[in-house]
Design brief:
globular; mainly alpha; two-stranded antiparallel sheet; 340 residues; 49% helix
Amino acid sequence: MEYTKDFKERDELLQQLEDRGLAIPDRAAALNFLTPVGYFRSGAYRYVFRQLLPADKVSERLHQYRSDEYIAGASIDHVMKLEAFDFKLARVCQEGLLEFEVRLRAAIAHTLASKNVAAHASKEFLDAQSCDKAAGEHTKFDAWTKTWRDAVTSGAEDEDFTRHHLLKYPEQDLPIWAVTEVLSFGNLPFLFELMQTPDARAVARMFGFAHPSRFGAVLRMMVDFRNASAHGSRLFNRAFKRSLSLREHDTDGALLAHLLKPGFTVTPKAHQRLYIYAAVLAFMLRSHTSGTNWPLTFKTQARKLDLRLQAPDGSDLISPQVSMGFPAQWSDLDLWKPAP
């Protein structure tokens, strides 16, 4: 199929939206919105205001479910408010994820350093079976060694503590507490999965998880969550690629028990939505001995989503429950209240 869409100036794009039924009450404000946000990005927020296609017009193959026409009452003001809400929500999530990342680095470094200051560099202090698993043409340990050495080399250009160590102790590997500081957040799960089970369990328990394997899966989720929040990706109405279904006794206490109930939310793909990601993050931060205020900050922002517009069938078109996997009455749950 040939791509036939041509470039259009912003005025033309606004006129096209208006012709398709999207109200433009203030053209100057709409132009000021499109200039920094862009027409394509704004489409992710406009999408929910477009009319659903009749069943015989839907194309599963092309993922085509909505027409170009907008529902009655939809305005670009709705789109602007939704994008502003989502932008702020991403910043709030980024704050919580940074809090978690710093604590995770410290937890892994402390646990491994108690065995050896360079425990990351030797299979003797890691899980031999995991280290020897294939990773392409090499082993996971080989891949991990390249990963952390590359991070150290890069860190030597940016961090004085790395450069100092390499100059003063050229024959010794950088200690684990320094390595965890130069690793990217995305590489921390790699190291965690190579740790010996008792060590991995000790780290997992610092964040309220009983089993290393489940916590390792959560770490991968948090990397995806951090990337989406930090790189300007949409959180509203998003289905993340990784799904998490918790089981009884996976975590300590009952703060996440509501996630075990079938149909805890009306949003499709419930285990891939923002709520379950944010709920697990809130739980881990609360479980840590340092405590946290982040769940209250997240609750405050999430409750600001208040676009009173109905779908053609009379239901709410947009809400945390409809769009992001939040349960009914979620803000009354103990998870989102101040810790006792």
